[in-house]
């Protein structure tokens, strides 16, 4: 996403959240090169180190509903019985 410097100044918290969710933000500046906001490699590495924290992925991970799980199971069963992996005899 590309935003202006003025927009970035007014919406820094929103942009920081977007970066935390993996989006790269480019801030355009008049007559200067753009600035890119990304999660630093050190910060990304520190998230994977250390003890696991219950709820650490809250808001970042989508768990399918029961109906979605059933649909995925049906699709997988169809692929396995009628697909190229195990073609019907």
What's a concise summary of this model?
By secondary structure, the chain is of the alpha+beta class. It contains 4 helices and 3 strands; from the N terminus they run E-H-H-E-E-H-H.
Helix percent reads 40-55%
Overall pLDDT: 83
Quote the distance from N terminus to C terminus.
51 Å
The number of helical runs is: 4
CATH topology: YefM-like fold
The level 1 CATH classification is Alpha Beta
**CATH architecture annotation:** 3-Layer(aba) Sandwich
Strand order of the largest sheet: 1-2-3
Number of domains: 1
Q: Shape from CA axes?
A: elongated
What fraction strand? 15-25%
| Cα-based radius of gyration, to the nearest Å | 21 Å
Structural class: alpha+beta
Account of the protein in words:
The structure is a single chain. By secondary structure, this protein is an alpha+beta fold. The protein has one domain: YefM-like domain (YefM-like fold, 3-Layer(aba) Sandwich). Helix content is 45%, strand content 16%. It has 4 helices and 3 strands; from the N terminus they run E-H-H-E-E-H-H. The chain has helices at 5-10, 12-20, 41-48, 66-82; strands at 2-4, 25-29, 32-37. The chain has a 3-stranded mixed β-sheet with strand order 1-2-3. The radius of gyration is 21 Å and the shape is elongated. The protein starts with a strand and ends in a 7-residue tail after the last helix. This is Antitoxin.
């Amino acid at each position: 996403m590309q935003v202006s410097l003025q927009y970035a100044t007014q919406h820094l918290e929103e942009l920081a959240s977007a970066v935390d969710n993996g989006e790269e933000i480019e801030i355009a500046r008049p007559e200067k090169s753009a600035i890119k906001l990304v999660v630093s490699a050190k910060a990304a590495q520190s998230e994977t180190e250390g003890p696991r924290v219950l709820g650490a992925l809250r808001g970042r991970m989508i768990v399918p509903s029961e109906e979605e799980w059933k649909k995925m199971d049906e699709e997988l069963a169809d692929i396995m019985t009628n697909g190229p992996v195990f073609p019907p005899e």
